[in-house]
Amino acid sequence: MDALRSVFRTIGHEIQAHPVATLLIAAVLLFAALGGAAQITSVTGDQAFTGDNPTLETYNDAFDRGSISVLLRGETTDPATLRAVARFDDRMSSVADVAYVTSPADPVREKYGRIPDSQAKIERVLGSPDVTFVRVVFEPGLTQPEERPIYTEALAAEEWARFPAGVDVIITGSAAFSAQLSELIGQSTNQLLGLAVGLMIVALFFLFRGVRLRLLPIVAVFTGVLYTFGAIGYAGIPNSTLTSSVFPILIGLGIDYSVQFHERYEEELESAPPREALPQALSGIGPPVFVAMLAAALGFGATWISTVGTPAFVWFAQTSMFGVLLTFLAGILVLLPILTLYARFRRRGVGELDHHDFDGDGDGDGDGPEGGTTDPTDSDRVGAFGRMLGRTSRTLAANPGIVLLVALLLMGAGFQAGQGLDTLADTEEFVPQDLPAYVDLQQFRSQTGGGSAVQYDVLVTGGELTHPEVLHWMQRFERVAVGAPLIEGIDSPATLVAEHNGGEIPETQAGVERVLSTVPERERAQYYNDGVAHITVIGAQDMSTDQTLSFISNVQDAIRFSNPPPGVDATLTGTAAITPPSVVEQIESRNVTTGLGVLFVFGLLLAYYRNLVKAVAPLVPMLFVIGWQNLYMAALDIPVSPLGASLGAMTVGIGAEYTIIVMERYYEEKTQVGVSKLDAVETAATRVGKAISVSGMTTVFGFSALTLSPFPILADFGYLTVGVIFLTLVAALATLPPTLIVLDGLAERLSPLLGGRGTDPEPQGNA
């Protein structure tokens, strides 16, 4: 601990001696960050929730053909319409990475060699449908960034094809949805950043009163956010729905760090010249804020570890970890040198005040107005609010039994309420329900009876997959599967072979091969490709998340009960089958994630303090909050989302900052001669209570930007985090003082049994 204080004191000396050089370092890092930010990509939809999976990769490379579907409604058999379809078909067929295009123009041109001028002739081939479709099918294995240019080209081709005014054209499909969602994520990220910064300015202007340059923390934290953009760009971490929520969070947390630095520096300037104030301030506040920052990083680290295998959550955790580290760094490299330069300028501007008159009150004593007062709770900078916090904390600390019992009962009620909370696990409910691409997709599904949304995929590998024994197993699998709930049909290579062989499976493999040779290559590639086979399973429409999980279980049971031949492996795969269990698992493992967060932060505190009481005390209020947050969620009817499931670990990591700072100041005050525990509690709450209240409320303002997100999952998370941050602030000021009194007293009673070692640190002066 003393070593860390010494390190921060040295950093303070260097910054106050070389403020301009420090700012130049910050500028160089900012320039480098801009290069990394330009490399950021985005991943959307279910692909953000599916990690490395060899079976899925094999399926994607062989069969997963993304597509664009064009829905045409109105005068679909009019010659002008069909000519426009043909123009669209021809143009899209020549686009790179497009495998083929199917359209109603194909059978008409096959029949007549061209598009006839007669609508009657067209209707002899197509009938007279009010709705028809064009399907642009991609080469298999394309990534989302590779698919998006095809969608862009489809938009241009639709305009170029000049569809008649009487035809409604809707372009939808996976690429369209991904492209629009990616654009919305980028817009949302920028909007949330702007909102968070705007709310922070308001919060600092009204809450951070009585200090000079009170808006300066915004500059520091925004620099830290830009550093974070650069870091994730260089690290290859893409932007996604969940990742975009990180930046308002970082603004909130980064403001915390900068406000703490700023507030302590102003406090030290009351009794020391600038050249001494900065080292003293940084040695005093640097270690606890540094430990708090590491605690926040470890809270996000717990989310990372508990969600390995689900990229969206891992990216969220990684971005958050980069962010807390870099916003902390920006507070040191940007905020402190500017404050140093301003303090120097201000002293010169007032004609070099007497070197003892550091506070500028004209009395030459440097101890504040009226001179002579040394009561740390009686400073003008503390104000009525600070003194009220101090007196309240003293009252609560004097009655620890009642306070802790009430907190404990509320925590228990919260854990009970948590069992009845609703969940948000359907990834389609994560996105704005009025997103044009989503609305178009829903219209397409309604016209096609569900479309691809009800199709799931089984990848078959190993053995001779064209052997009659394998095809007979596929028929057996179909009989078993279709009898199970929610499974409505099977389309397999056995279906294809029997269809082209009079309803029978040939008796030999050579016979199967002969039948397959008569099947058009495009059709055959949907069932056999690259030595693997593909079975399509049709599920019921509009399945809920629970029904989807039951459907997946039923398919897996049917595979097992149908008994595939030796050496043949059949696996249900595809993002539609992998994502729901992954999301639900994240929600169900929230207690594990929270437990990891508590364990990590406890280990950090124990390693730093080497004292069990100091490692446990900051966590007790956070444990209360973990229970209380369930009551808050139940009151506002906020469901448990996979993002919200990580909040327990985040609460421990983020909230530890407030409790650590209060505890550090408590023990610092206890070293003073003649100061009782209650005196120390009151002084600590008075001097740092206002600072953490200001930083806590500015954090709340930053997080509240999330409530305005167009993404439902982020808006819910915003409401949740706003409430939880407020609860952590209340817990730090209301339950930590009595916790410290109880644990400190217990440690003193046990001290003789432990060889006389108490909890009091060595006196450290004003540091």
UniProtKB/TrEMBL annotation:
GO terms for cellular component: plasma membrane. The keyword Methyltransferase does not apply. It is found in: Cell membrane. Keywords: Cell membrane, Membrane, Transmembrane, Transmembrane helix. Its main location: membrane. The chain crosses the membrane at residues 20-40, 192-208, 215-236, 242-260, 281-306, 312-339, 396-415, 592-609, 616-635, 647-667, 688-711, 717-743. Residues 355-382 are annotated as: Disordered. Coiled coil: none annotated. It comes from the Archaea. Pfam families: MMPL. Residues 213-341, 591-742 form the SSD domain. It is a multi-pass membrane protein. InterPro entries: MMPL_dom (IPR004869), Mycobact_MmpL (IPR050545), SSD (IPR000731). Belongs to the resistance-nodulation-cell division (RND) (TC 2.A.6) family. MmpL subfamily. This is RND family transporter. It comes from Haloplanus rallus.
